[in-house]
Amino acid sequence: MIKKLQRKFIMITMGSLFLVMLFLIGLTNGIYFVQTEIKTNESISIIAENEGKFPEFIKGDHMNGPPKTDEPFTPLFGFRMNAETPYEKRYFIVELGFDGSVNQINTSHIAAVTSKDALEYATDIIESGKTGGYMGIYKYKVIEKDTGNMIVFMDCRSQIQSELLLLVISCVVGVSTLILMFVLLTVLSRRAMRPFVENAEKQKLFITDAGHEIKTPLAIISANADVLELTGGENEWIGSIRNQVARLDKLVKNLLTLSKMEEEGLKLTFAHFNLSEAVAKIAGSFEAVAEAKNKRLRMDIQPGIMLNGDEDSMEQLVSTLMDNAMKYSNDGGSIKISLAGTKKGVKLEVYNTAESLDASNLDRLFDRFYRADSSRARETGGYGIGLSIAKSIVEAHKGRISVKSEDGKSICFTVLI
Hints:
Layout lengths: L1 H48 L35 H4 L2 E7 L4 E5 L8 H14 L3 E4 L2 E7 L3 E8 L1 H76 L3 H26 L9 E4 H10 L2 H6 L3 E6 L4 E4 L1 H18 L5 E8 L4 E8 L20 H7 L5 H11 L3 E5 L5 E7 L1
Parallel strand pairs: 7-9
Antiparallel strand pairs: 1-2, 1-5, 3-4, 4-5, 6-8, 9-10, 10-12, 11-12
């Protein structure tokens, strides 16, 4: 149980950290990508507005920038042209007439593209009907003029490389952080869980010691009751003593069983056995009880179902579920147990009618000492621990147990192994 709690803590923490890292990486790369796109689009717009080139700067003239420094000012966000911009950007333009004729091709600001290549790019774009986008590493925009269309191409090689580099670096940092956090959580969670482990061990030790200590006075009380019965004859007081001794003895046995079920490294004796016969044997032993209490018991057990498990604990599981159904079913009600094979394993169901149920608290039935109706539990002798044992048995067999009530007047326990 402690290891399961530790794993759950690590999984929740790592999952939360992964979502935070994913958000931060996405936000950082998204902002950088948007800013790059804005600057590229504004550069293309300036070229289009100035007949295919950047405006010229006069050396020493600070009219286009603040005169506070020798270097032109560039804002952190957005785009502002400076004297170095024409030398930093690589671009080319193509002007085509509406009839497809070539008005102008200017590749003087780029070395990787020839006039022939530029014309092919422009022709393909005009034929596609698009007005903007990417063609490989070149971002383009089509500007309609009086004489035709001007297509401005901007080389975005460095921007794309920077975006990819930022993405790779942020992903590497994120993965490294997750690995480091996983290692730290694995190491530190053990230290954090140490008090819980010690408390759990003390609790198990207390239950075991107390159980064995209680057995001795119970045996003495039972023996004294026998002596009193021999000397004074049977009476209601002696009968009451015997009933309470039996109840306490059953409670101690259940506590010890539950404690053993939750011990780390508990090894059941697994072997192939006929589950159908085991279920039929245990369920059949309740037929006389059901008849005596005027309750209908039906069995729908598929024959020949084999299971690799602990036969004794599976019989205890069936007995616990049947005993629970017998105790809490309404007077004159019906009980049904069914067993069938499925594609993934075995399905066991125990159904019983009831007077009324609170469907909102059904999952709590597997909690220790929880009783949906305390007064009814006292009448039937229940302690609210049997279903906890049943759940431990199912989990020891790597299965699942669930409970549901569709109409509020019946309940069905389902075991899948």
